[in-house]
Amino acid sequence: MRKKITPLYFLLGLAALACQSPQTDKEESKTDSLTTVQPVYITDPVLYDSDDPAIWINPNDPSQSLIVGTDKDSIGALYVYDLRGKIIDSLVRRDILRPNNVDIGYRLSLGSDTVDFAVTGERLTSRLRFFTLPEMRELRAPGIEIFKGETGPEYRDLMGVAVYTSPKSGKTYIIAGRKNGPTDGSYLWQYEVVSVQGVLDLQLVRQFGQYSGKNEIEAIAVDAELGYIYYSDEGVGIRKYHAEPEMGNEELALFGTEGFKEDHEGISIYKTSETEGYILISDQQANLFRVFPRQGTPDGPHIHPLITAIPVSTQSSDGSEVTSVALGADFPRGLFVAMSDDKTFQIYRWEDLEQVILQPQSK
After folding, report:
1. Distance CA 284, CA 57 (A)
2. What's the domain count of the chain?
3. Measuring CA to CA, which residue among 256, 318, 304, 360 is closest to residue 52?
4. How many helices (H) and strands (E) does the chain have?
5. How confident is the model at residue 35 (pLDDT cuts 50, 70, 90)?
6. Residue 323 falls within a domain, yes or no?
7. Domain BPP, which positions (predicted)?
């Protein structure tokens, strides 16, 4: 059942860590003593297992934007919510075979049509499924198979999905991850979305990305303006690469390698300007979102020290998304939405998270 909660403000933030260090008992105690940020809305629950949300910005009326979330089950679904967390039943799409992640693309040209779309990975079939927005009409049913030719254990079990539209070329790409994969620098596959006589198709353009082999890679996020891809190598850290295929496959950064309780999960990028902002990473088992500078530091754009950590009411959050676009009276400076392990997604006002980030840090 959807409910509205009055947001709480904070008197104290976490100590900033210019150099990251393992989380000590003292640090955990300090984190536990902070007031937890509360959402303004909690969505109606999905049937089985909420996993990852995305935000579609309505270009005509941002207050009528939508949240799309996955129900991760063998008879799963894409749920569509209004900004108060109410399910829009006519837009829910069921019988998707274990959808993990979902992302949004804008103004894709298909013949004479231009469409916005949601894309999700169907893990049990290794297919990407595409739906127009806001209608949720499926494109190219029943999806497009990827990771063709892979034979390793769980090498075709599709999980992470992210959309990148190049500001330089206008091309749209899908970056896909899986449950397991090689450790030779080819874990992620990047596909260009193309139109063949007005019909959506995919062309593989590169295989890239280091993988520790420790757990899995699920969370993928793209900073389109700066041209970077970030992904969580769970239990290891956040890896950073160029988003443009022709820029090469060199790893630009591995950060957030210490201080996390266990798994690195959902990645969200809040933009305060064209070049600055915050990268929020779910510290899943600690129920925190750790915050890093989007722009790096004066010593380099690929240096991302921890700024602070935000305690949130979500439980064991896998996926999250954020926007800085004003979405009506409830969200004048944007919205943050995160999956919670109670079959819901929790919807936060950005100002309530920023209150923690901007607090003077104790020494």
Report:
1. 27
2. 1
3. 318
4. 2, 25
5. confident
6. yes
7. 27-357
